[in-house]
Amino acid sequence: MRAARAAVAVLLFLGTPSACDAAPDAALDGLKIAAGSPGDVYHALGQALAGAAPGVQVLESGGSLDNLRLVAEGGADAGFATVDTVTMATHGDQPFRAARPLVALARLYDDYLQVVVPAGSDIDRVTDLAGRTVSTGPAGSGNAVVAARVLGTEMTTVHLSPADSAEALHAGRIDAFVVTGGLPVPAVQRLSERRPIRLLSLRAEIADIQSQYGEQYQARTIPARTYGVRTEVETLGVANVLVVRPDLPDDKAYQLTKLLFDAKPDLVRAHAEARRLDPRQALATFPVPLHPAASRYYRTHKTFA
User: pLDDT digit string (tens) for 131-157?
Assistant: First the structure.
């Protein structure tokens, strides 16, 4: 709520909206979006945007960190990332060597942190992972960042994709894996159809993570029956945003923001979590500031009324 009120306050102080009515195909021709690898939600959404505006190009990457590097260094005009990794980039925290100016066009949906183990495993809590082999997601992904923050380092880590992690768990080559994503994550869903699984509760870790990293991580609940798990599971959520450089021309930033909502049916077909894309929520990108043209879009569409 505080983030949303702050965003509203910013919008109220902005100047008169410009028309920004150029045809999206013209304004976005040649625009490049860094969007992860095939099979990722980011990549699916990027492809859906490119399908709605054929001039848009989708670049493959390793995930949030790679997307941010591409945007910051000019290799891409926009990129998908989680707000925790954007904060790392704007502060110049490792693995970034210097602060990178980045702003958001929209909050998209929340990722849920999911720690997956076989149903019959003797691993009941995060501390039981000590000495075990755990896949924390591809190197260069937001998944790996949040996994390291929550789980610590007292385990053997491997960096597998969600699909490869699920296969490795099924084959007994790893003891657990961590995945972040909207519900349900396809790889976890497919695994649950092959064998019973459990999700570890993060109830004991939530307060500590929030005290260290603030509001970018929110307490969330994975509903009962997700993946066949009988009870609710307490976990952490982190928002996904579409980011650009502050110097992206206003017409491009405005039209790309507009495209997100004009193409929403295509995005939902690409991944169900896109149904959560809502202009009234999309402007709440805290702690990442909005591009002025995105702010103008939300104001002209009266999303703060």
Answer: 999 999 888 788 888 999 999 878 999
Q: Which residues make Cβ contacts (< 8 Å) with residue 228, sequence separation at least 6? A: 192, 196, 197
Name 40's Cβ contacts closer than 8 Å, sequence gap at least 6: 63
* 156-158 and 57-59 beta bridge pairing: unpaired
Task: Decide if pLDDT at 3 tops 70.
Answer: no
- Evaluate whether 297 touches 257 at the Cβ level (below 8 Å): yes
Express each pLDDT in 4-43 by its tens digit. Answer: 444 443 333 333 334 444 455 578 999 999 998 776 788 8
Which is it for the CA torsion 109, 111, 112, 118, positive or negative?
Answer: positive
pLDDT in tens, 150-207: 998 789 999 998 889 999 999 999 999 999 988 888 889 999 999 999 999 999 999 9
On whether both 8 and 96 belong to a single domain, the answer is yes
d(CA 68, CA 257): 18
Q: How many domains does the chain have?
A: 2
Q: Does a structural domain hold residue 305?
A: no
CATH number of the domain residue 143 falls in? 3.40.190.10
